[in-house]
Write the C-alpha cells for this entry.
Amino acid sequence: MSDMSDVLLITVVGMGLVFSGIILLWGLIALLMGIDARLQRPADPVLSPEAADEDTRSVRRARAAALAVAAAVALDTLRPPTPRPHSLPLISAWQAVLRTNQLKRGRR
C-alpha cells in the first residue's frame, strides 16, 4: 500500500509543478503585454489638411478593396461546387471483370 501512496504523491506533485509553471507563464505573458501596451501608446498625430485628405482617400481605397473581396467571396460561396473527378475508380478491376462476366451469362 505504501508503494501506491508514493506513486500518487509523485503524481500530485508533478501535476502541481506543471500547472504552477503554466500559471506562472500566463502571468508573465500578461505582465509583458501590459508593459508593451503602455510603451506603444501612439501619440495623437496632427495632420495637415493635405495629409488628412490623403488619409481619407487611402481609407476609402481600403474600404473599396475590402468590399470587393467580400463580394467576391460571397459570389464564390453562392456558386454550386464543381464536381471533382474521382482519383480512384468506383469499383476495383476484379469487380469490373466479375460484373462483366455476370452480364455475359445473363444475356445467353
